[in-house]
From TrEMBL:
Residues 80-114 form the Zinc finger DksA/TraR C4-type domain. This is Molecular chaperone DnaK. A zinc finger (dksA C4-type) spans 84-108. Residues 6-76 form the DnaK suppressor protein DksA N-terminal domain. Keywords: Metal-binding, Zinc, Zinc-finger. It comes from the Bacteria. Residues 27-48 are annotated as: Disordered. InterPro entries: DksA_N, DnaK_N, Znf_DskA_TraR, Znf_DskA_TraR_CS. PANTHER family: GENERAL STRESS PROTEIN 16O, RNA POLYMERASE-BINDING TRANSCRIPTION FACTOR DKSA-RELATED. Gene3D superfamilies: DksA, coiled-coil domain. GO terms for molecular function: zinc ion binding.
């Protein structure tokens, strides 16, 4: 058990280093590409803006992954790592190796994703009905 935890801790720390290095590289290349750059035409400006927004989005995703890794490292320290937060069963080692910051077993994760999809569809249907109702009142 201790060997598994040490192996997973090493994997998590390696992932964290890689993400931080990627974020630093992206930030450096982003600041270098905009520093001293001529204004260019509107298409160049739009392209640069799109690239910058994409970089920010990726950084947000990477920051989220860092948060998940830090939470997994905390669970390791608290001896709660590798236990599903929903059913409290052990998460299989294969899943942990594939997704070291997993908080749920495959079944519970799948159940939660199905519930989220149903909730999202319900919210979208409700919003559509509200739009349709408002258009009928105006018309």
């Amino acid at each position: 058990m201790v060997e598994k935890q040490e192996e997973m801790k090493d994997i998590l720390l390696r992932m964290k280093e890689e993400i931080l290095a990627g974020i630093n590289k992206a930030m450096k290349s982003g600041s270098e590409s905009t520093a001293g750059e001529p204004t260019g035409d509107i298409y160049d400006q739009a392209s640069s803006e799109r690239d910058r927004e994409l970089g920010l989005l990726l950084n947000d995703r990477e920051r989220g992954k860092l948060r998940q890794i830090d939470e997994a490292l905390t669970r390791l320290e608290d001896n709660e790592y590798g236990v599903c937060e929903e059913c409290e069963e052990d998460i299989p080692l294969g899943r942990l190796k594939a997704m070291p910051f997993a908080r749920f077993c495959v079944k519970c994760q799948s159940d939660m994703e199905k519930l989220q999809a149903q909730t999202r569809r319900f919210e979208e249907d409700r919003a559509y009905r509200e739009i349709s109702f408002n258009e009928e009142e105006e018309g």
